[in-house]
């Protein structure tokens, strides 16, 4: 089974809640899972041969939260091609803002530029429609987990 690092970017705790809901769903399928609330480049690089799940909210201007922005910058500035990395993205946002789920979309674009392999589609979760994101994310995670096998 896969080793999965869940890299969290949260402002008000929803992304962390989603990560904490994902952990047992993935573990129940036999995957080894670790959550990183303030992820570093060293944490990220430990999963270069494995799987990363980015779960991030978005600030009002389409930016990443402070808890994950340094990791994004370090990946952008210090890492190059990452062809052995497999990943998924859960992007949390609010469609009433111009840059809906911009943080997660930016992370996905960066990883695509670096040659990483995305497993499944990016899941965008609209807080305006889904105030409890795990209602949408849990079924997605269960389906995504099958792509790791």
Give an overview in words.
The protein is of the alpha/beta class and about 150 residues long. The chain is about 35% helix and about 20% strand. It is built from five helices and six strands, in the order βαβαβαβαββα. It has helices at about 15-25, 40-45, 70-80, 100-115, 135-145, and strands spanning about 5-10, 30-35, 50-55, 85-95, 115-120, 125. Strands 1, 2, 3, 4, 5 and 6 form a six-stranded parallel beta sheet that branches. Strand 3 (about 50-55), helix 3 and strand 4 form a beta-alpha-beta unit. Helix 1 packs parallel to helix 5 (about 135-145). The model has no long low-confidence stretch (mean pLDDT about 95).
Please give the number of β-strands.
6
* Helix-strand topology string: EHEHEHEHEEH
Tally of separate helices: 5
Low-confidence stretches: none
Q: What is the terminal separation in angstroms? A: 6 Å
Q: What's the pLDDT, averaged over the residues?
A: 95
Which percent bin holds the helix content?
25-40%
Question: Layout of SSEs?
Answer:
Elements: E1 3-9, H1 14-27, E2 32-36, H2 41-45, E3 51-56, H3 69-78, E4 86-93, H4 102-113, E5 117-118, E6 123-126, H5 134-146
Parallel strand pairs: 1-2, 1-3, 3-4, 4-5, 4-6
Helix pairs in contact: 1-5
């Amino acid at each position: 089974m896969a080793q999965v690092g869940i890299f969290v970017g949260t402002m008000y705790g929803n992304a962390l809640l989603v990560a904490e809901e994902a952990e047992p769903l993935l573990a129940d399928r036999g995957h080894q899972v670790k959550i990183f609330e303030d992820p570093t480049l060293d944490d990220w690089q430990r999963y270069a041969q494995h799987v990363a799940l980015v779960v991030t909210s978005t600030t009002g201007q389409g930016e990443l939260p402070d808890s994950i922005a340094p990791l994004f910058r370090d990946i952008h500035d210090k890492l190059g091609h990452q062809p052995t990395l497999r990943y998924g993205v859960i992007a949390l946002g609010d469609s009433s803002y111009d840059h809906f789920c911009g943080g997660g979309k930016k992370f996905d674009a960066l990883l695509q530029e670096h040659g990483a392999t995305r497993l499944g589609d990016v899941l965008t979760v609209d807080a305006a429609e889904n105030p409890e994101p795990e209602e949408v994310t849990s079924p997605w995670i269960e389906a995504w987990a099958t792509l790791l096998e």
